[in-house]
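Here comes an entry:

___
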Amino acid sequence: MSPLHPLARLRASLVVLFLPLALQAAPVPTKIPAAGPGHAAIASAYPLASDAGKEILAKGGNAFDAAVAVAAALAVVEPSSSGLGGGGFFLLRRSSDGLETMIDLREMAPGAASRDMYLDRDGNPVPGLSRDSALAAGIPGEPAGFAHLAKKYGKLPLATSLGPAIRLAREGFPLYPRLRGGMEFKKNAFLKTPDATRVFLVDGEVPALGAIIRQPELAASLEILAKSGADGFYKGAFAKKLVDGVRSLGGNWTEQDLANYKVVERAPVIGHYRGARIISASPPASGGVALIDALNILEGFDLDKVDKVTRTHVIVEAMRRVHRDRAVYLGDPDFVDVPVARLINEYYAAGQRASIRLDKATPSAMLPGVDAPSPGPSTTHFSVLDAKGNMVAATITLNFFFGSGLMVPGTGILLNNQMDDFSVKPGVPNGFQLIGGDANAILPKKRPLSSSTPTIVAGPKGLMILGSPGGSYIPGMVILGTLHFMDGRNAQEVAGAPRFHHQFSPDVLQFESDALTPEERKALEARGHTLREGTRKWGNMQVVTWDYATNKVEAASDPRGAGVGLVY
């Protein structure tokens, strides 16, 4: 008998090793303790935002009040990533009754939006139209989300929770390196509107580090929201001011568009992995479905007993498959039938797992159905846990750096360019090189698909609240973060771990420079992967953990960013 080729021996041994695991029932996860940890924790992308949340907790607020304060402060001190002109998702867990819900404050397409609005006469996308113009802006949801969260779940008045952000906008804050870099990148866009030029530039140039950035018009807009709630923003004189300003910039908003905007509460997606309960964002956020599907696939492999190359290979193959499903099936559930139950089912994952070869990468072109017409670095995330065990995982965004970079006159509000997250044309990549089909096509009042993945992982021994910005990279980062937590890493180790990424198309395994050794890269290439070393770090993960046995709470901000984790 001739000896087996080394790769064949590897595959045979791994099949024997993994097959029994695929047939085992997942262990029952430990329930989250009814009593809170007695400590509060906040992790956000900038210290002043974490401080804002801490200030509100000190005034008697709960995690939901603190979330309003943190999100509003980020709109001021991290305007590259979120703002009153943006939207996102708040994933909540209320300790008193175990309620788990997702507040969908995603932007909505204006009534004048149409499927082919960004195409030329020949049916080709017009460069920049869905990203750099006022036509790129969806109707924002953050202001409505703040008001909803405060009124339904908070303990304090909205005006109290918005107080720190109003103060920061009026008094200013010193310019820091990460924000200054974003301003350099977006300088030419700022020059298109006098208000953005005045707020962010001095004599047409980005100011020096430490310069005080004041935003009096934004402070006034926040004060209107604080005094009059969502109606003060979406109706009446301020709504008319917004619409007139957007239309003067070439946009297509109407006062009726603003009046029609509503936040939606949706059930999160729920899954299980190695005894942990996974609670994550549901459509129109795609990340939760991708996370649970990927974990279901990986449940059938004993990742602790294989070498790093095989572990990386298997995780990449799971990422490839869940991003393929995103492209084919996912969209706004109010407009299309999204098969969530099927996509997060363990039997569906078993079928995907069966197509994974352990000795060879699966070319993305071999997975069916993607190009059929029918089936950032510029987002921010924060995590909050209060002393009673209330939790918030929030991912909010303008899309890309500073959205379109256009500022609505007299408001201090930057326009998002979230319309680029729709499928401008089936099979054509968006700004993050994500492709999509009819499920994510543009329609009036529809919400574009998002990669946001705010998540709570409730394990047998402890709990983690996490999420990250990063556009198409987000689901993969949360997949890796969840695996690291289940492997026993602490909050800072989860936030700082090196990362790799695959999103089906382009068919490339991207990695941070310290994620793979030269030997590991060669071994993955030998299995058929095309590798590309990233030119920069990606993501800005914010993590809070709670150990049930010791009640120890940790908060960690990604070392790639400028944030801070506070335990209070």
